[in-house]
Amino acid sequence: MRYRRVPDETVRRLSVYLRGLLFLAKQGRQNISSRDLADFLGVNPWQIRKDLSYFGGFGTPGVGYKTEKLTKQIKKILKLDSVHKTALVGVGNLGSAVLAYPGFRIYGFNIAAAFDTDPKKIGRKVKNITIEDVSNLQTLKRRKINLAIITVPRDAAQQTADALVKAGVKGILNFSPCHITVPKKVKVITLDIARVLARLPYYMSAS
Amino acid sequence: MRYRRVPDETVRRLSVYLRGLLFLAKQGRQNISSRDLADFLGVNPWQIRKDLSYFGGFGTPGVGYKTEKLTKQIKKILKLDSVHKTALVGVGNLGSAVLAYPGFRIYGFNIAAAFDTDPKKIGRKVKNITIEDVSNLQTLKRRKINLAIITVPRDAAQQTADALVKAGVKGILNFSPCHITVPKKVKVITLDIARVLARLPYYMSAS
After folding, report:
1. Residues in A touching B42 (Cβ below 8 Å)
2. What is the pTM of this model?
């Protein structure tokens, strides 16, 4: 829907490279060639070089990339070099699972608020976060939370997005397998779990 | 880790095109240009044409693609033109949410079995599926289930994958934010929820 100089696909792949680099750095790897990084991630080496060239390119021919330095640089490009407070709306099974998900901190995310409509859930604590009434969503701006995760039932996804946008949220990760309409200044990524599964059969019959 | 003529990235994008086409077809759209499809999906038009060219290309210059025909063709390429019985291991919050997820059928997936280690859960029904003991995993081959979803705690992910591979599973969707090692003939996709969230901040500050 939007055109920028850097394609969405490049931004997506940068996050893939970052995950790989974080893993390799943890294993003590200090340098890596675009070829080895590509092998590790299952992408093309030229693609890595091309994507990084949007931002100036960081490798040394024949030597490769310094793992730690490139990690920092990609974090900076993706604006992940500071902590992002994030809200979650919909504390059902999926919402509870996301609240308990152990992988957010490594990217600098802090799930700082959770909301639901169910009076039985409001006031309860999940992972040290007290569940609030969705009518409190309007407090997000004051609390400087401009990132949100939607884990409500599909029928409630659009109205939840509308409320989040009204509350000043600029980025939404939507888990409902449906199309959400928001103003242009707001970025929505819809994570359709079934679509990810849909990539597997291709490989299963090929091997 | 593996090299094929068709890059993993192309397979991934085909699933993105498919989701868009399924949505557009539902809205009654019969034809679409690569430009309009690209706009709708937030990708580059040349990328769509290039990806489809691996399989012969299906559009007519100046006219575009027939939505229904292209949908069928991509389903065939991705081996989604038949039903895939799928097992799920780990019926915690995330597993329960995945079992209840409404988006699988459109891609031809049938979640046909669910497993857990918790005696309190075994025998219970979730969405018409009776939860079985993980010791039953070995029955998957006989039941012709060769696709599986792992929603167990991170520490149990590798041993679950090992058991699934032993049971003849050829494709695994892993929700644990960790690296899983499997034989080459098995394809694993790790869906790291935090990594998807990590794509948002880039856009939020840019707008």
Report:
1. 1-2, 8
2. 0.87
